[in-house]
């Protein structure tokens, strides 16, 4: 009988600990989602290789007052070579 009571108490402790841990994670998740609920980045198209990438990961270049974004420094350099030689 004592063993059953002990097992019952152990199970209740397990359930309380588990619910406490999940509650903590869900509140952290909700706080994270509130901070990032809006779109934090925009996808742009590379004018040289024509692939889409996150604007924040791109390499920028200002051409005639307009910002142009490239997926890499190599694409930026190739774009400049191509347009300078014309």
Q: Let me know the average pLDDT.
A: 81
What is the fold-level CATH name, i.e. the topology of the largest domain? Ribosomal Protein L24e, Chain: T
Number of structural domains: 2
Beta-strand residue percentage = 15-25%
Shape: rod-shaped
Structural class: alpha+beta
Instruction: Output the radius of gyration.
Output: 27 Å
Number of strands: 4
| Biggest sheet statistics | 2 strands, antiparallel
Secondary-structure topology with pairs:
Elements: H1 2-35, E1 43-45, E2 52-54, E3 59-63, E4 66-70, H2 73-84
Antiparallel strand pairs: 1-2, 3-4
Question: Would you kindly provide a written description of the structure presented here, covering whatever features stand out?
Answer:
- The chain is 53% helix and 19% strand.
- By secondary structure, it is of the alpha+beta class.
- It has 2 domains: 1-39; 43-84, Ribosomal Protein L24e, Chain: T (Roll), CATH 2.30.170.
- Strands 1-2 form a two-stranded antiparallel sheet. A two-stranded antiparallel sheet has the order 3-4.
- A hairpin with a 2-residue loop joins β3 and β4.
- The protein starts with a helix and ends with a helix.
- The model has no long low-confidence stretch (mean pLDDT 81).
